[in-house]
Structure formats: structure tokens, C-alpha cells
Design a protein that fits this description.
- The radius of gyration is 25 Å and the shape is globular.
- Strand 3 and strand 4 form a beta hairpin.
- It has 450 residues and is an alpha+beta fold.
- The longest helix has 29 residues.
- The protein has 17 helices and 13 strands.
- The relative contact order is 0.10.
- Strands 1, 2, 5, 8, 9, 10, 11 and 12 form an eight-stranded mixed beta sheet that branches. Strands 3-4-13 form a three-stranded antiparallel beta sheet.
Length: 450
């Protein structure tokens, strides 16, 4: 059979050897064991690829070569250039700004990271995985989201090993897990410090060699991970310095967080205290996490981690903002009345018919939440909710749908601002009817400031 088919292997073992001899796409996997100084025998396993090998793999992929963009530019809707469009990363202002800081002839590789701790099983020890994915802003958005294009690479599995408690307090346990995350990410990101500052030669799929500066441009995560990554105190905004009790106020004149400001808070707290507890309290008083002494992004060139954190539509808008809005509507109408109205809705193309209402649903998926948003406004017409309340709900729904536009211009961005202004003008209805005491909700605030 081997001779007739012209096979290069004669057994299953030889076939496996041939497969194993194929060079890996993004370099070999490495193992790093992390420990704490007071517990040297307790090891936490980090599995990762060399970050530059992963970047070179995407940069040199022949299938992606003709789609890669190597320089920033402006996209306009007409010849008069009076209406600028924003869709891909290269059409934005950030890339143009960073490009001016690079030497002439060098190009930028905007790195887009995403992490999300995943529950693999509820049984057999409650297994978890903590993957880190990487893609490039040079690749068009339609390809980055296409699994068959393989434009996103798994670069690491962060440690998920359970920590033995011993005599450690609950707060110290949480601090250790956060320090472990930053230590693992710092090890992965270390090569980017020199490469991002001085550049590194990379060959694209067409054979062209360019001096490339890989820079962390975007970090996609849900709200808890945004706080973890940016070292913001949980419950505050990871982008601005608004205090917790002011999150529901209008955003006029808001002071933004910067890496230097966060690091200065940590440095001053470290210099002015003599114990971990005092350091923790000093940082927390300034709305900075006191769990982490040194963030992984410290020293990364051209990186503003607070601006880089990007909320995703699923967790931030649908499973966050819309979830709150639906619960407020249930409080105003009662769950039974809202369910009755939902059941009475006629079937329609593109709409899900919730034949039993929505109050009995548990562990609502993102798709189910999207379908609820499609029918919510229709169920409020003719209800006890006043026009002000319905207008507030419409404004939130308008913002959610406008945020998902694939292409924006100054006009559509103004539509989003108008939706937020309409919400601010009418949200007092929920305070007057006693549904809410305040609107200091981090997910709602950070979605508006994004």
C-alpha cells in the first residue's frame, strides 16, 4: 500500500512523526513556573509562545498579505473630504498619532489582545482555562472575526492553579491572584519593550522586509478584567478618575486616567507607607487597586492601557446595560405584566417569540438578551411607564444599536452623544418611581465614556 500510494510513512507512528516535524505556525510552546517568595514550593504554570514569533506568524501569513495595511490614512465619504469615516483601526486618529513618534520608514503593528477566563466543566474538579488571544490591527476587521481566516492566535494559557489557603486572609488571597496575573502577563509582554521602542525586522508574505514596532493598542475584556488589567479599584471607571458616587453624573470635564498617573499613585503609596496594608489603603483611597505593586504594562512603549481597554458588546452592553434596563422595566410594570405583554406580541420575521415571557429564564445567553432588546420598547407602549421613562429606555436602546455600526462618521458619533444626552435628561424617572436610588453603575458609565 505504501509503495502504490506513494506514502512517505509506513505506520501510524511514522505518520505522527511526520506531523510532529511540521514547523509550528507561531513557534513552540514554552512553560514557565511562577512562585511567591514566601511559598517557593507552590508553583503556578504559565504556558505561552514567544510573543514576537506569534506576531511574525500573522505578519508573514501569505493568505493575509494582500489585506495587510502598513500605514495610517483618512477615509472620506466624498471628494470634498468634509465627512470623515472611521471603521478600521488605520482610519482612526490614534494610529496617525503613534506613527509620528516612529522613525521615518518604520511601520506600526497595533496589537489587539483579548482574555476571558473560561469555565470548562462544572464537575470533575471545576476545570478552568485562561486563554490569551492576539491579532493585529493591520488586518481588516472582517478577517479578524472570521475563524477560517485564522487571523487570531492563541499565545498563552495563564495560570489557573488553585492556591492553598493556609493562613492567608481572603483579601491577601485575592491580591495574590491579581499579582499572579500581572506577573504572567509581564513575562509574556517583556519582549515588546525593546521591540516596540526600537523596532524589529519582519518579513511579510510577499517577501518584503520592514522595520516594525509592535505596540499594545487594544485590550478587549469584560468589566472585571478591565479593572484587573488597568489596576483600577473594582467598582470605579477604568478610564477616568470620577469617584464612585459620581459615576451617574454627566461626563463634562472628566479627568482621564493615564499610566503615569496610576504609577505615580502606586509610587507615592509605596514611599509613604511601611506595610502592605498601609500601601493597600493608600492606593484604594485614590481609586487605584492596592493589590498589585507593579502592573505588566509598566514600561511598554507608546501604550496607554486605560485608553486601550475596550468593552465588548456582549458583556458591556447586552449583559450589562440592557440587563439593568430590563430589570428596571420589570420593577415598574411588574414581572407578570411585562411577561403578559411579551406573550401577546405577534410572531414576526427576525424576532423571537417568548411564549412564556422572560422572567422565568435563568442563565440568559447573549442571543436571548439581544432578542429581548428588539421587543422591549414595543412592550412599554401603553404601559404605566410615563413618556419620560419610555424615552429614557429608547435612548439606551438607540445607543446600543448605534455602537454596533461597522462604520462611523462625525454625524453618527453625534447621534451616540445625543442618545446619551437624552438618557441623562430622562433617567430621573426611575429615581422618582423608586426603582433606583442612584445611577452610579460602572458598566453604564464606562460604556458612555468609551
Amino acid at each position: 500500500v505504501k509503495e502504490k500510494l506513494g506514502l512517505s510513512y509506513g505506520s501510524t507512528k511514522q505518520l505522527h512523526d511526520v506531523v510532529d516535524s511540521v514547523p509550528r505556525r507561531a513557534g513552540s510552546w514554552k512553560t514557565k513556573h511562577l512562585t511567591f517568595a514566601d511559598r517557593p514550593n507552590e508553583k503556578f504554570t504559565l504556558r505561552h509562545r514567544h510573543i514576537l514569533d506569534a506576531i511574525r506568524s500573522l505578519w508573514g501569513d501569505p493568505e493575509l498579505t494582500k489585506y495587510l495595511v502598513f500605514q495610517p490614512g483618512e477615509l472620506h465619504a466624498d471628494k470634498t473630504c468634509s465627512r470623515r469615516l472611521y471603521n478600521e483601526m488605520w482610519t482612526g486618529k490614534w494610529w496617525s498619532f503613534i506613527q509620528t513618534k516612529l522613525p521615518a520608514g518604520h511601520t506600526l503593528a497595533p496589537l489587539i489582545f483579548s482574555t476571558d477566563k473560561t469555565q470548562l466543566t462544572q464537575f470533575s474538579g471545576s476545570r478552568q482555562a485562561y486563554p490569551v488571544y492576539l491579532t493585529l490591527g493591520n488586518i481588516p476587521n472582517r478577517l479578524r472575526r472570521k475563524p477560517s481566516a485564522m487571523a487570531s492566535i492563541l499565545v498563552a494559557y495563564l495560570p489557573v492553579d488553585k492556591m492553598s489557603k493556609g493562613r492567608i486572609s481572603k483579601r491577601d488571597m485575592g491580591s495574590r491572584y491579581q499579582r499572579l496575573f500581572h506577573a504572567a502577563m509581564a513575562h509574556i509582554m517583556e519582549p515588546l519593550k525593546e521591540a516596540g521602542q526600537n523596532g524589529v525586522e519582519m518579513t511579510s508574505g510577499d517577501g518584503a522586509v520592514r522595520m516594525v514596532h509592535p505596540v499594545l493598542a487594544s485590550y478587549v475584556a469584560d468589566y472585571p478584567e478591565q479593572c484587573l488589567v488597568t489596576c483600577a479599584k473594582y467598582g470605579t471607571c477604568p478610564k477616568c478618575r470620577v469617584r464612585v458616587d459620581k459615576l451617574g453624573d454627566p461626563l463634562d470635564g472628566v479627568a482621564m486616567r493615564t499610566p503615569d498617573w496610576t504609577l505615580d499613585i502606586m509610587s507615592c503609596a509605596r514611599a509613604g507607607t511601611s506595610s502592605k496594608t498601609a500601601y493597600f489603603d493608600a492606593c484604594m483611597a485614590q481609586d487605584v487597586s492596592g493589590h498589585v505593586p507593579k502592573p505588566f504594562w509598566a514600561g511598554l512603549p507608546h501604550t496607554n492601557i486605560h485608553l486601550s481597554t475596550t468593552p465588548d458588546v456582549l458583556h458591556q452592553l447586552y449583559q450589562g446595560v440592557l440587563k439593568h434596563l430590563i430589570s428596571w422595566c420589570q420593577s415598574v410594570l411588574t414581572e407578570a405584566e411585562l411577561d403578559r405583554r411579551i406573550r401577546c406580541l405577534p410572531r414576526a420575521l427576525g424576532l423571537r417569540h417568548f411564549k412564556n415571557g422572560i422572567s422565568a429564564l435563568s442563565q440568559v445567553s447573549g442571543t436571548e438578551r439581544k432578542n429581548m432588546g428588539k421587543i422591549l420598547l414595543a412592550c412599554l407602549v401603553g404601559s404605566p411607564m410615563t413618556e419620560s421613562g419610555i424615552t429614557a429606555c429608547r435612548a439606551i436602546l438607540d445607543f446600543i444599536y448605534l455602537a454596533q455600526y461597522s462604520t462611523h462618521d462625525d454625524e453618527t458619533l453625534k447621534y451616540m452623544d445625543d442618545a446619551l444626552n437624552t438618557w441623562d435628561a430622562n433617567k430621573g424617572y426611575f429615581l422618582r418611581v423608586g426603582v433606583r436610588d442612584h445611577f452610579n453603575i460602572p458598566k453604564l458609565h464606562s460604556s458612555a465614556i468609551t
